[in-house]
Predict the structure.
Amino acid sequence: MSGSLQIARLFGIPVQLHWSFSFVVLFILYMGFEKNMDAAQLLWLSLAALGLFVSILLHEFGHALTARRYGVETKDIILLPIGGLARLTKLPEQPFQEFVVAIAGPCVNVALSLLLSPYLFLVLVPGLEDRPLPTPDSLIGDFFFFVPFMFSMNVGLAIFNLLPAFPMDGGRVLRALLAIKLGRFRATQIAVVLGQLIATAMMCYGVWSNNYSYAFIGIFIFFTASKEFRWVKTERVLQQAKTGSVARTDFTKLYRNTSMQVPYSLLLRNQERHFLVFDEQDHQVIGTLSEGDILKGLKAGSPDARVSAFYTEGLETVETESDLKTANDKMRSSGADILAVMEEGELVGVVDADMIQHYLKLRHRLPAIGAG
Ligand SMILES: [Zn+2]
């Protein structure tokens, strides 16, 4: 996400902090100044913010590491002041898998609460006999109530995330359950409508109670839900087309010793953007040269450079008979810009994201055309 700063890489997943997190720091400083806090209160508030931050981070890793068990990788985890976001490279498709991945996050918060709960029985309850319950103001700075505060925060996170407001975790759980009976498309439709109703209620409540963080979360849910629904609609269209029907069959073959001028002039004329690279000797595909590689070559500025200096080794393939969604998923999860299209072990064409976009545009204008 733009405006995010990578702060760590855990289990191979980049953890990004969104710039709006600086508001949290400003908020703590403002509170400290406005309420004339002493050092202990400022420390308490900072530790509470840090504890909340760690709880949200662990929640997101709950999703990411569970998804990994089903072979779905996570591009990155973004931490925003209103919560976290684990961006999976694709969504688990089996309803059961989506159910487990979605519920894993809130389960982490339940587990954290359970870890903290011995303190409640062993320290808090006996200690309550000779001290009053804190008010919101007296709570800050009182370390006796710090663990109970973190406990209630984690219970709150679990409950809040389990609200059936798609695309929040509870909404995903609901969609997964509905999808078992109704299929993914219909289940998403229902979950999205329910999610948007709850989001609208949150926005109204936020404005009515002057608690604008609810309003922001409501707006976020509302728009993410419609975005996801558009994506599910697109997915359905992609599933109805065969890769072979959109693949380009007359593509330019580059060899290792081809001059970089060749792909550059094709790119300039807007004919092809990504290429397959072949070996001169055995004419087998050995890698790809993407638009990014070509631009890198141009920046390096050597006019007689060869493809061999800039191409990327390795190749992702897709069968002519597989649907476009499979091709699209493969590009997203591998980061490849172009796929080799195979039929019975033979290379018959190439497909890239532009061709898929082009197909979607046509389908959008002429819903009746069929492909494959
Ligand atoms: Zn979650």
